[in-house]
């Protein structure tokens, strides 16, 4: 799915009205209908539960009014509260007139804001994507009032006061929603940890925006769901052999961290690599041979850490980093690898830390390398803390452009930046995956997919990130989130990839 800015959303609305010959209030009616269908499926018909709808002066408020009318038709008597303003949008006014006279609809009095019971349900339709500045005055007071009421707030389109695609000034008034129910496409704001307390759980409901307009609209950000990946992972042909899926080399492990090499190796094999060779220090030889008999092991002459770069000729891709340590000799192995490699590279963990502490190595990164830092590793890579989550994303975009690489930023919605500066946000995964070794598994999966010659660098990265998160979701069903360990992820990678594999039409 594309992620549109607030301005692009309004363009998409206009294009839809033109292409489909509908008026703006008809589009609003679709939004209200979709919202009500969602709400009614969850709303127990409890006449004792107070229901309040807070409406602002624009089309977000218009949505709120249309929702109030529709809920009334379903037997729910909401109290409608209007934010005083000097100007109201045309569709606000139209839907104000359409309200049944029996519905209680009052202007908000800033001196006496309505009492909200803690069991009340509040629909927040104060401001949407038309927000042009932080809330102040009565609007801010109303939002603070909602937030301190303890009522369950459902935001219509976006929590009021939240910008759709840029940061909030600190201390601005924003509604704390339990749910955010948005339309057609997600907003960038929903994906950032700094906004989680306002956005709550979010979802998007289709309202039939013009697909041609959206298809042709250039965007900087994408949200990657299963539909987005459909057809990108070809089925294995009957006559494929080990060579088709590539021979990967993984350089990983040091004393006390051979487990990282084992986890990455298992994941790489489960992600379908043709052959896997693991380069480990001598201390890891027996462990790898025993724990991962499907992999071949190369022993480094040193006991505790990797000191030598193997001959790279046999390999279709090389992964380096999990549990590697940051010894000087290991850094030189990384330097040689960056100089000599002519095949795709996947760099993680200590390989990234070495890049961070030795910025001269960054200049050696071969184009199309794939880097998988978490935010702390990323900060070391760029050498500058981010002001906020938006700034971090801009740093990520700039980094991938500067080094012509694919750079991941791990998190709840893991982001991938491409050399052309586009960001892709992954949709799978759960908090159970915040556990040691989870990143090693990701490295193994990505290494396998980068070794697969059938996949572009972008598709390999997107499929790997999605499958890693999906494996976490499948595993957590059995283990629970707290009980999830990284080894479980590796066990479910095959199934996650199978779900993504293109089926061949019968005819
Ligand atoms: N495709 C869709 O997603 C659809 C969305 N719809 C809904 O329409 C709103 C956007 O409506 P718009 O009128 O453009 O903006 P708002 O309702 O957010 O309010 C604009 C209104 O408020 C004034 N304003 C802006 N910032 C402030 C401020 N800080 N303080 C006070 N006043 C402010 C501004 O000048 C305007 O007068 C979208 O979110 C959806 O909910 C459509 O219903 C259908 C399709
Ligand atoms: K809102």
Automatic annotation (TrEMBL):
UniProt-annotated binding residues for K(+): 60, 124, 160
EC numbers, comma separated: 4.2.1.136, 5.1.99.6
Name of the encoding gene: nnrD
Organism: Hymenobacter luteus
Domain YjeF N-terminal: start-end pairs: 9-215
Keyword hit for RNA-binding: no
The name this protein goes by in its record: Bifunctional NAD(P)H-hydrate repair enzyme
Catalytic activity as recorded in UniProt: (6S)-NADHX + ADP = AMP + phosphate + NADH + H(+); (6S)-NADPHX + ADP = AMP + phosphate + NADPH + H(+); (6R)-NADPHX = (6S)-NADPHX; (6R)-NADHX = (6S)-NADHX
Sequence positions that bind AMP: 410-414, 439
Task of the protein: Bifunctional enzyme that catalyzes the epimerization of the S- and R-forms of NAD(P)HX and the dehydration of the S-form of NAD(P)HX at the expense of ADP, which is converted to AMP. This allows the repair of both epimers of NAD(P)HX, a damaged form of NAD(P)H that is a result of enzymatic or heat-dependent hydration. Catalyzes the epimerization of the S- and R-forms of NAD(P)HX, a damaged form of NAD(P)H that is a result of enzymatic or heat-dependent hydration. This is a prerequisite for the S-specific NAD(P)H-hydrate dehydratase to allow the repair of both epimers of NAD(P)HX.
PROSITE patterns referenced in this protein's UniProt entry, alphabetically: YJEF_C_2, YJEF_C_3, YJEF_N
């Amino acid at each position: 799915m594309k992620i549109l800015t607030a301005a692009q959303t309004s363009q998409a609305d206009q294009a839809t009205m033109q292409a489909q010959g509908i008026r703006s209030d008809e589009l609003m009616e679709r939004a209200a209908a979709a919202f009500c269908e969602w709400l009614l499926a969850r709303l127990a018909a409890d006449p004792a539960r107070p229901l309040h709808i807070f409406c602002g002066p624009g089309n977000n408020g218009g949505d709120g009014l249309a929702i109030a009318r529709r809920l009334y038709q379903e037997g729910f008597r909401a109290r409608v509260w209007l934010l005083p303003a000097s100007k109201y949008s045309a569709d606000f006014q139209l839907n104000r007139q359409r309200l049944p006279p029996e519905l209680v609809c009052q202007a908000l009095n800033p001196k006496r804001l309505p009492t909200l019971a803690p069991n009340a349900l509040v629909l927040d339709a104060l401001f949407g994507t038309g927000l042009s500045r932080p809330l102040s005055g009565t609007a801010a007071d109303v939002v603070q009032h909602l937030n301190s009421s303890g009522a369950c707030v459902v935001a219509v389109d976006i929590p009021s006061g939240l910008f759709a695609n840029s940061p909030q000034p600190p201390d601005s008034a924003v509604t704390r929603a339990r749910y955010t129910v948005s339309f057609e496409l997600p907003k960038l704001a929903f994906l950032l940890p700094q906004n989680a307390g306002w956005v709550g759980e979010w979802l998007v409901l289709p309202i039939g925006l013009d697909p041609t307009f959206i298809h042709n609209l250039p965007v900087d950000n994408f949200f990657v769901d299963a539909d987005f990946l459909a057809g990108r992972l070809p089925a294995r042909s009957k006559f494929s052999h080990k060579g088709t899926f590539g021979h990967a080399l993984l350089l990983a492990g040091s004393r006390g961290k051979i487990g990282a090499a084992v986890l990455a190796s298992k994941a790489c094999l489960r992600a379908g690599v043709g052959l896997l060779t693991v380069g480990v220090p001598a201390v890891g030889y027996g462990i790898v041979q025993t724990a991962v008999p499907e992999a071949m092991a190369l022993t480094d002459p040193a006991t505790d850490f990797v000191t030598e770069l193997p001959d790279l000729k046999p390999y279709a891709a090389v992964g380096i980093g999990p549990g590697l340590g940051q010894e000087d000799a290991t850094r030189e192995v990384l330097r040689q690898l960056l100089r000599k490699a002519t095949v795709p590279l996947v760099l993680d963990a200590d390989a990234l830390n070495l890049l961070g502490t030795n910025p001269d190595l960054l200049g050696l990164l071969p184009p199309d390398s794939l880097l998988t830092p978490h935010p702390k590793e990323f900060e070391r890579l760029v050498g500058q803390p981010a002001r906020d989550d938006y700034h971090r994303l801009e740093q990520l975009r700039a980094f991938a452009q500067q080094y012509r690489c694919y750079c991941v930023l791990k998190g709840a919605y893991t982001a991938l930046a491409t050399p052309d500066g586009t960001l892709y946000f992954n949709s799978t995964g759960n908090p159970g995956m915040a556990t040691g070794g989870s990143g090693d598994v990701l490295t193994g999966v990505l290494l396998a997919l980068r070794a697969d010659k059938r996949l572009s660098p972008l598709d390999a990265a997107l499929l790997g990130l999605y499958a890693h998160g999906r494996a976490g979701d499948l595993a957590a069903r059995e283990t629970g989130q707290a009980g999830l360990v990284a080894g479980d992820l590796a066990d479910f990678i095959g199934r996650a990839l199978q779900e993504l594999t293109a089926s061949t039409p019968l005819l």
